[in-house]
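Problem: given the chain below (214 residues), write out its structure.
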Amino acid sequence: MCTGRVDIAFVLRAFTNGADGVFVGGCWPGECHYVTQGNYDTLFNMLFTKKLLEQVGINPDRLRLEWIAASEGNRYAEVMNDFGKQLKGFGPLGKGEGLDKRTMKLKLEAVTKLVPYAKLVERERLRVRFKTEQEYLDYFASDDFNRLFKELLVDKLAISQIMLLLGEGASSARSIAESLGLAASEVSRHLNMSSRLGLVRFDEDLKLYALAAS
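Solution.
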């Protein structure tokens, strides 16, 4: 199977099922077996997925992409040994990030729920086509990409996490911020906006926020 078919959802599913790391190996750029040059598609997808993971507090280096030809058995062994050592250094998923299992599960669910929208945004606003790997790396490190990523996805990722947390029960803005590792001011802004939209309600007696339907 061409690595260009490795979907964001596949990676998130692996982490959700308890994987401490995900490895994707593909043909070297310029040596794709298909006219679509799918290895460049997977390079974009994996760099994009790393951004999503990083945004919710998961070490993006737990996802690794390497170019390895079918004839490079020794290189494959070396890369896998190196990745294994790297993951041991990170520690188990969640623990290495300072997150408990409940919070880690919630964060992965928040990203997963947002995948259809993220893929639409990626295709319509972020997708580019370059001729070299370095151009892709430069693009993802650029101010233009980071500005668009923040504008289109950062707030929605935060709101997705907040809504899932409130789905477990009423909570204060401070508690939400501490649980999710978000800035208190950011959480308050999202709660106020969500309240105006009728998505959440504030209990004046308990001083807690809850989902409007609960």
